[in-house]
Design goal:
The chain is α/β, with parallel strands linked by helices and 432 residues long. It is 40% helix and 18% strand. It contains 15 helices and 16 strands. The structure holds 5'-deoxyadenosine.
Length: 432
Amino acid sequence: MLPMCYAIPGKVVAIDQKFVTLEYYGQQKKALNEFKQLSIGDYAYAQGGYVVEKIPLQEAENILSAWKEIFFELQNLDLELSSKPLREGSGDSKLTKLLDKATQDKELSKEDLLYLFEQNDPTSIELLFKTANFLRHKHLDNSCCVHGIIEISNICARDCAYCGIALSNKELKRYRMTKEEIMASVEEAVNVHGFKALVLQSGEHSGYDNDQLADIVRTIKAKYDILLFVSFGEIGLDGLKKLYEAGARGLLMRFETSNPELYARVHPGCTLESRLEHLRYAYELGYLILTGGLIGLPGQTPQDIIDDLFLTRDLHAEMYSFGPFIPHPKTKLSADKAPDELTVIKVLALARLLDPKQAKILITTGLETISLEARRKGLMAGANSVMLNVTPLYYRGLYSIYPGRAHEKEEIAVQIEETLSLLRSLDRAPTD
Ligand code: 5AD
């Protein structure tokens, strides 16, 4: 039985007047053909017994290689995928209908994503992940971006309820790298390790004003041909403009949550509106937008998370950055719990379904902190981006937004080696 609902191209192996025989991984199926130009050896999609589209050879071969694994597994799973047409829509087939919609590049609604998010049986989750992986491969092939991040200061003027470097954590030793230290780190990242894209990050109002930040950006850009992202929080619209003019081309700023009440609750004295104003203005200026939210904030609902994904897309995100909330002992939310790994990976998979063709979907350090296998699992569920920490080791431990951060003690060379060997084992190519 063939899961015809999924858009797997079949190879034309026989033509008998109006009927063609299509072969899928060795199995044959007849379909009514109204395409005059179809010949033996061509590939085509069939739906509901009709040939619906002829597929160029190269495209068909790509799709078939991506589908091979899932195809045979689907056959083994008793999902009744093919025994009754999905469009008849029994309760059981809703999942496959939605995944089907996704593989055919149709828009999914908020209800669709919520339904998928709330599936908890291992088979459904597996299918979701495989579909996301399929879409990633179909549209973006095997490329994976690898960016570096330098955390230039842990000084912060905000008091976010979840964050370990929040203002009210008086026990934390604070640091601010000098311009010379920043330049030395950039030099090492670019010249020794070959990074082509770097993020500079700090707490908000770290003691560097916007002119000083612009000077740092300008100095880096004058020396190195790299894509430079900035992540200094809400530096004002004029600040964004200044840094853009200095040469910054990406903004990493999560909106954290799209729920305005929840946002206000965990960010005392701040508004979601102001955050979004920054993100929207940055896009207008021409910045690449890297944004997303925290998963598992106390009081956050599944609907909130789905809204977060849609908001990320509405903000024209180049990169989706979604990671788990991890309780930090010195914060107001110390007694709350981190979400489990599957919940987070589901969100990554849903991001792929929502924005299949372009999105860079990041495996965050947060996810790596709660799951040792995060990268492999995430990369197999729609994600295609990792970030390595290139902050000098002697400062890295002080950037303690949450405890036990993954890679906190790893030399850059070690991180690179591990990342490349993982990518190689998955047949992925680092594109940066
Ligand atoms: N758990 C997970 N992520 C956190 N961040 C800050 N504190 C935590 C925490 N406790 C994230 C925020 C911020 C990014 C720099 O770090 O989402 O945008």
